[in-house]
Amino acid sequence: MRVAALLTIVLLLAGCGGSSGTPAASGGSGKLKVVATTTQLQDIAKNVLGDKVTLIGILTADADPHEYQPTADDVKNIADADIVLRSGVELEKWMDKLVANSGTRATIVDCSQGIMLRKGDAAEPVGDPHIWFNPANTKLMVHNIVTAASIKDSADAATFQTNELAYDKQLDDLDSYIKNAWATKIPNPTDRKLVANHDAFGYYIDRYGINFVGSVIPSMDTNYSPSAQDIAILEQKIKAQQVKAIFVESSLNPKLAQQIASDTGVTVVDGKLYGDTLGPAGSPGETYLKMIRYDTDLMIAGMTGQPLPTSATQPLLISPGRTTIRPYSPLPELRGGLGYNSLPELRGGKEGRDGNSN
Description:
- The protein is α/β, with parallel strands linked by helices.
- The chain folds into two domains: 3-170, Rossmann fold (3-Layer(aba) Sandwich); 188-352, Rossmann fold, CATH 3.40.50.
- 38% of the residues lie in helices and 12% in strands.
- The chain has ten helices and eight strands.
- Strand 3, helix 4 (95-102) and strand 4 (107-110) form a beta-alpha-beta unit.
- Helix 1 (3-15) crosses helix 3 and helix 5 (135-152) runs antiparallel to helix 6 (157-185).
């Protein structure tokens, strides 16, 4: 990726005062300026830090953190920040140079500290970066955020810590909901057969006993381009294990998944899992808590052939004689074809991008 060259340009633009995104807070606000990389971190920080800080996000809904390229606004916001939150485990590979070149004096918080990491792969040798897919991990991320904010702003530390306790309770409730949903609707773990877009769900799979068959992109990094052999192996597994459905993600192009489904005679679930990013406001994945619950409901519905959930706040609908209800979907069918660059049939202008053109 051209991150080094891009950052040189970005710094020049920042020096010229160019800015078209979310500006940093003014110096007179008196609030901590907190910059958070991923949409998950932004939502978590909003819940536990509240209006005591000025919160600025880098990634936006449905943007792929593996592929992101920094902007001039990112440089300026990080330079002006008091705290910078990163998910860690090398998810934001572009972040080190961005921080170094910004010259920031901010406290850089690696929110993965204290989490027991899953083994990574060739693309992610440090470990599996998708730590938020276990609510117990998310509680540690919350604690890392609150600890850093409390040190910087001792006057509001008690508020941050009270918010942490309240949010931890919601995480515990979410964890209980997920365990109960699987136990009651698909009690046999071997029947919980998951084929996903890429290897983003490992922590979820481990915690809730999911039978992981494989991924369309057999990598933890969406930049990986699956080979013909990779596809053939996955199709063989799908047939051998009698998988019922393939699940796609909100930030990835579904074309290859649709082709594999056609080859194997299975269904692509008419809804999108939220993997590396939250959804936009008003979607079932607009918050972290809703995202994980919706993903759970969608997986269970797709695996059982029951009607799909329309939102994360509604119970899974069971209607005899109906096998599908199209869930809320504010996004176009074609999302960024990241990871498919070596497959000519999946290229093609804006269909093969995430919708952001520079």
